[in-house]
Design goal:
The structure is a single chain. This protein has a domain of 128 residues: 3-Layer(aba) Sandwich (Rossmann fold). Helix content is 47%, strand content 17%. The protein is built from six helices and six strands, in the order E-E-H-E-H-E-E-E-H-H-H-H. Strands 2-1-3-4-5-6 form a six-stranded antiparallel β-sheet. A hairpin with a 2-residue loop joins strand 5 and strand 6. It starts with a strand and ends with a helix.
């Protein structure tokens, strides 16, 4: 559960710390008091994209931090363990958003990525709105939902690593098959040419004999023409 939320230099909020206790907590106030901004801060700590517009006017950096108490067998604890982080004393998520739009994520004091943040916070907390149920229709959520239901999420990294190992090997096998087929075609062509040469039964020095015969035939033709011309 969410134990404490800290928001600094964010939108209209200067610096607040909100502690939460077990049971139901209700945030109330007039329109514009900042309730939706607090929800937006929680969304960002769960992995939503940031914007430079969210930094308080005149400030360079907004800072958000949340402390969660997590169960040892929870999904968040398993992901932390896979990343070599200890979640036995809880989960601290810190996010810094600069006025340039860039943001940095820290998980248990270690700088991390937005992708890892999304993995850690999957099913950790949920923001429900009027159309929140439509997220079930988004294809990019289906695999996460299925893995979470089946309890197969811990094996995803192992499968990903195996896939990355197999993929180049499969490409190499395909390349070798292509080369083998090309060599077979070349071998067939060379064998065809050999068969033609053998069928021609060419004798040694046959080209010279053929040149002599061609010269004799050419001379015989000329003699025949001269003889026929003399008779006429």
């Amino acid at each position: 559960m969410l134990i404490e939320l800290t928001i600094k230099k964010f939108a209209i909020i200067d610096d607040i710390r909100i502690p939460f206790k077990k049971g139901l907590s209700v945030l109330t106030g007039e329109t514009g008091a900042g309730k939706s901004i607090i929800i937006e801060a929680v969304n960002l700590l769960l992995g939503s994209r940031s914007s430079a517009d969210l930094v308080r006017t005149g400030e360079q950096t907004a800072e958000l931090e949340a402390f969660f108490d997590i169960e040892p067998d929870s999904h968040a604890a398993r992901v932390l363990l896979e990343q070599g982080m200890d979640g036995s004393e809880g989960l601290i998520i810190r996010r810094l958003i600069s006025d340039s739009g860039k943001s940095r994520v820290f998980i248990n004091s270690r700088q991390s990525t937005l992708d890892l943040l999304k993995q850690v916070t999957f099913n950790l907390a949920g923001i429900s709105s009027q159309h929140a149920h439509q997220g079930l229709l988004r294809e990019e959520n289906h695999l996460d939902i299925l893995d979470e239901f089946a309890g197969t999420r811990p094996g995803r990294k192992e499968i990903t690593d195996l896939y990355k190992t197999i993929l180049p090997l499969a490409a190499k096998i395909a390349s070798l098959k292509t080369k083998k087929e090309e060599k077979a075609r070349q071998q067939d062509l060379l064998q065809f040419q050999v068969d033609e040469i053998e069928a021609a039964a060419i004798l040694p020095d046959e080209d010279e004999d053929l040149d002599i015969q061609r010269s004799l035939l050419q001379n015989a033709g000329k003699i025949f023409e001269l003889v026929n011309g003399g008779i006429t």
